[in-house]
Amino acid sequence: MAKDNSKDKPGSIEVKSFGTHHVITQPNPLRKVLLRVPESDLDDPVGRAEKALAGLSGEFKEWMTIEADRLSAAHATVQREGFNDKTREELFRAAHDIKGDAATFGYPSAAAAAESLCRIIEHAPDLGAVPPQLIAHHINAVQAIVRNRTKLDTAVVAGVLSKQLRGIADEFLTHANRDRPEHLEAILAPSIAPSE
Amino acid sequence: MYRIDFNKLRFLICDDNPHMRRILRTLLHSFGAREVYEAEDGATALEMYTHYVPDIVITDWSMPIFDGLELAQMIRQPESKGNPYAPIIMLTGHSEKRRVTVARDAGVTEFLAKPISAKGLYQRIMNVVANPRPFIKTKTYFGPDRRRNTTNTYIGPERRGSGEVEILQQPSLLEKARSAI
Question: How near does any CA of chain B get to the CA of A159, in Å?
Answer without folding.
Answer: 17
